[in-house]
Amino acid sequence: MDCCLSMQKAAEYNLKMHPMWQGPLAVPGGDRQSPIDIVVRKSVFDSQLKHLIADYDPTTCQQIWNNGYSFLVEYDDTTDKSTLKGGPLQDKFRLCQFHFHWGESNAWGSEHTVDRRLFPAELHLVHWNSDKYSLFEEAVMEDNGLAVIGVFLKVGKRHDGLQKLVDALPAIRHKGSVVEFTKFDAGCLLPNNTEDYWTYHGSLTTPPLTESVTWIVMKQAIEVSHDQLAVFRSLLFTSAEEEVQKSMVNNFRVQQPLRGRTVRSSFSPFLKESPSDQDDQHTH
Ligand SMILES: [Zn+2]
Fold first, then answer.
1. For 59-130, where are the E strands, in sequence order?
2. Whole-angstrom Cα distance, residue 219 to residue 192?
3. CA of 232 to the centre of ligand 1 (A)
4. If you measure from the C-alpha of residue 100 to the centroid of ligand 1, how many angstroms do you get, rounded to a whole number?
5. How many angstroms separate the alpha carbon of residue 158 from the centre of ligand 1?
6. pLDDT tens-place string over residues 232-251
7. How far apart are CA 255 and CA 248, in angstroms?
8. How many structural domains are present in the chain?
């Protein structure tokens, strides 16, 4: 079975079936939609792209909830205690939440792809511009309002940092459930190498799909175990009251056209890759 085709079918099925995609906000409007396929050799090396500075304070972590489409780990964003600066960003951005997208199998699940390569899951760390705006709700509607870091997950050894999160998931199995979740350092989910990334202007991949996002997609994936991903898949799209329970899988959006946008890279794609990077390319 062709992997990309079955993934596309799974996503389209989800778009039709999942209530989140049935409202007017789910209709994409513009020319800067996400996610996209990153074509490595078409990305443009930009030597001006700086190092990212993710300065996260674990004490701002508050709770984890199943919103019926993914699970969100939410941070107190009333102060500048957990911020992202540098990279392609001119301003300071506050961490407000992170979440994942994943597939029903390890063959697909990520929203972005790299040269059409699919990953089993993708982490999104969502930040809003606290230099220009005073609330997430304000920033989400504006150009340069949001910065989202995307990190690919690949199957390998167990991720110790992620395990604390995985252990909390059975408590939020059903849609709408929330539990306290504190002192989690979101920085532990970043890859070792945060210097190499792609960046482009895009949108949220869930309604309202606003084109307010500076995407920063990490080149290096993080490794998690199959068992850890299996716990993601044990979550439910449905609330406890619903008669037919539905597994939370394939919660990713179909890919969107690039429409003339440029994807910039912080590294030169034409330099020979290190052996460890080579290894990253063959685990799918
Ligand atoms: Zn997302």
1. 61-66, 71-75, 83-86, 93-102, 113-114, 121-129
2. 11
3. 15
4. 6
5. 22
6. 999 999 999 999 999 999 99
7. 19
8. 1
Q: Tell me, in angstroms, the distance from the centre of ligand 1 to residue 102's CA.
A: 10
Q: How far away, in angstroms, is 54 Cα from ligand 1 center?
A: 18
Residues with CB under 5 A from ligand 1 (ion): 124
- Name which of 274, 277, 248 is nearest 72 in CA terms: 248
Q: Is 103 helix (H, G, I), strand (E, B) or coil?
A: coil
In which domain, by residue range, is 233 found? 3-280
Q: Tell which residue, 144, 51, 33, 166, has the closest CA to residue 100.
A: 166
DSSP symbols for 142-161:
STT-EEEEEEEEEESS--HH
What pLDDT digit, counting tens, does each position of 54-69 carry?
999 999 999 999 999 9
> Which pLDDT score is estimated for 279?
46
Spacing, Cα 74 to ligand 1 middle (Å): 13
Q: How far is the CA of 205 from the centre of ligand 1 (A)?
A: 6
C-alpha 271 – ligand 1 centre gap (Å) = 31
We report the CATH number of the domain holding residue 188 as: 3.10.200.10
Helix (H) or strand (E) holding 167: helix 160-168
Tell me the C-alpha distance between 111 and 198, whole Å.
Answer: 14
Residue with tokens 């800067």: 32
d(CA 198, CA 44): 9
Mean pLDDT to the nearest integer, 256-277: 79
